[in-house]
Amino acid sequence: MELLHLGPLADDPLEAAADFHARLLPAIEATLCGGADPLTLVFLPAEHGHRAWRLAAVQSLARRFAPSRVNALESDHGAAIAAAAQWLERAAGMTGQLLPLDGNGAGQVLYPHE
C-alpha cells in the first residue's frame, strides 16, 4: 500500500480543485502508471465544499486505473490514517472511496494473525 499525502490546498474549493488537477494529478497518475496498487491519497481536512471535487477525482482515478485500487482519506491524525490504511489494504474490493476520519476512533481494532 502506498500513501500519498496531498496539500495543503487552498481553502476555496474551486481554487483547491484547480491546484489539485494542475499540480498534483500528473504525479498521482505517474505513481499509478508505475504500478502503485493500492494507492491511498491523504487530504488534509477541509470544509464540506471540497467533498464533491475530491470524491469525483478519486472515483475517476479508480475507473481509469482499474484494476488498481485508489481511495482517499481526509485526516491530519496520524494514528487514524495508519489504521484506515491498514484496513484499506485488506479490503480487496474497496476502490473509488473518500473516507473522512476524525481521529477519535471506535475502539481497538483487532486483526487476525497473519
What key attributes describe this structure?
alpha/beta; 114 residues; 3 helices; globular
Describe what you observe in this structure.
By secondary structure, the protein is α/β, with parallel strands linked by helices. 42% of the residues lie in helices and 15% in strands. The protein contains three helices and four strands; from the N terminus they run βαβαβαβ. The protein has a four-stranded parallel beta sheet with strand order 1-2-3-4, sandwiched between helices. α2 links the parallel β2 and β3 (70-74). The longest helix has 21 residues, at 13-33. The protein is globular and about 35 Å long. The relative contact order is 0.18. The mean pLDDT is 91.
Number of strands: 4
Strand order across the largest sheet:
1-2-3-4
Structural class: alpha/beta
Described by the principal axes of the CA atoms, the overall outline is: globular
Instruction: Point out poorly predicted stretches.
Output: none
Distance between the termini: 17 Å
What value does the average pLDDT take? 91
Beta-strand portion reads 5-15%
Give, in order, the helices and strands: EHEHEHE
Q: Percent of residues in helical segments?
A: 40-55%
Based on CA atoms alone, the radius of gyration comes out at 14 Å
Major sheet attributes:
4 strands, parallel
Number of helices: 3
How would you briefly describe this protein structure?
Helices cover 42% and strands 15% of the residues. The chain is of the alpha/beta class and 114 residues long. Helix 1 links the parallel strand 1 (2-5) and strand 2.
Task: Summarize the topology.
Blueprint: E1 2-5, H1 13-33, E2 39-43, H2 51-64, E3 70-74, H3 78-90, E4 98-100
Parallel strand pairs: 1-2, 2-3, 3-4
